[in-house]
Amino acid sequence: MPRDTLLAPHPAQLVDAVDRARDALLRRQQPDGHWVFELEADATIPAEYVLLEHYLDRVDAPLQVKIGVYLRSIQGEHGGWPLFHDGAFNLSASVKAYFALKLIGDDPAAPHMVRARDAILAAGGAERTNVFTRAQLALYGEVPWRAVPCMPVELVLLPRWFPFHLDKVSYWSRTVIVPLVVLLALRPRARNRAGVRIQELFCTPPEQVRDWIRGPYRSGWGRIFKYLDMLVRGAERYFPARLRRRAVAWGVRFVTVRLNGKDGLGGIYPAMANTVMMFDALGYASDHPYAAKAWAAVRKLLVVAEDRAYCQPCLSPVWDTSLAGHALAEAESGAAPSVAAASAWLRSKQELDVVGDWARSRPHAVPGGWAFQYENAHYPDVDDTAVVGMLLDRHIQEGGDAALSEAVRRARDWVVGMQSRDGGWGAFDADNNHSYLNHIPFADHGALLDPSTADVTARCVSFLVQAGIAADDGVIVRALAWLRSEQVADGSWFGRWGTNYIYGTWSVLCALNAAGVPGNDAAVRRAVSFLLDTQREDGGWGEDNETYADAPHGRYHRSNPSQTAWALLGLMAAGEADHPAVAHGVAWLAAQQKPDGEWDETPYTAVGFPRVFYLRYHGYRLFFPLMALARYRSLQRSNDRRVIWGF
Fold it and tell me: For the chain, how many structural domains are there in total?
């Protein structure tokens, strides 16, 4: 339907839509007040889980049958596996998925396996997969160890002034690297009782490949680091055995201190799986407390349905609960019983005691953040902390539990302490911007670092201003200056953790509004123009993950509920609640709502690492449409069209 024929729903219809969406979300609230939704990635994580079971020879055959159903169901028409729904063929994901299906028992002559193999060979074969895939293949003996960039375990002992140091890479890289370099030093071999091989996926026999290490060549640094890789590889055999034992012991201590109980090292699958394999390679029995905890943490990530199963990359309860709380606060009030229960649960998850890795760069900051997962004390998340802080503050301001004010204060102080020197914020660390490290051979994914990003910075501005920091305070002034410098020529902002320019633009417009930047400001007007220009004919918005490559910003072949909601929330924050485009977007959301109050959304609208790893939050299709519809209803009922909250 053309945009100019769409009308906003009648007020009574809007009330009904909001009520049904609210009830749908309330039905999913846990008895203790929190929410947790499935978090889905691509084929990589479930395939790696299958490989892990065969590596350990702990094969759960019925579970693997269900994972096989899942993997076959997401195979692309191109024959391989994409990084997100309806995405292009990805070589590394396809090699892992093929290997997993063969381990599960799929016949290589089956049509789906033939199509996958043909696509892999056409793309250059398994020898051209990324570093992490080649490391997995080396553990299975499918490629020689020289196929993996040289990362000697002794690097964990390097001083902080050295160009490479664990403090200089992101938390996710740190937690993945430490157990991995121990594995690289030990060079264990997967048990692989079935003896499954995948040599048919190589265009050139692995022992004949001479150019395993190909960069990344993003600049001259890449070639320099390749030669350093060659030098270190040659020298590694001469490293003293005593030094290696000391480095391995350091790595084990690092992991065990951060083992994180049933929630696992770093709360993310790759680090957790590497930990399981590290303990196994070191000879820990499966019932050893450390090994048992590590394995239980991995198993906790499984989603097992009647007919299929997959493994999640991590769990997202704090993020889900804070977003659900904001949506319900908008639909009801910040003091509603559901919001009160969510706030109390969130308060119990605030990290007030553990001084995490973040303190290496900010030793004077006092703990007060929230992690993304149930528990991840060493790695609280700045983004989660800002969003939770805004919810608790709104709960207090609208008549909720005033005792939560101390939690908000601690969160505010920690976020202020985590500001980077450039004025922005990263997700887990400050000043984690040593860009040359993204050029080492190990970093072919280009996601080794955690620099300032517009979406996280915007969220921090929104929280800090809502929590009482003046817009002319130096913290806010520096942040706004950084955000202005990051605006793209088309008026948008890049979205690091959500897809993509729609997400980033919504986030920054909320921050500018919270900081009192007027709607006629040039940056605001350019951002509004971007959102208006990218609205689709049906009234909604959508954006492809290919925008992290070269696709046009803010464009997709369909509208999506979460991205439509972000665009609407951004426009309303910019003072455009009465613009016809907003009415059209609201009409599209209302028309797409199902009788049960929910929305369907298959495309992936979130990001782990741009161009490498994408996410589908199963709760996004519920949180954000409800928030947008409820906010529109509230503004239409009011004589004041200003959005008064930071989020």
Answer: 3
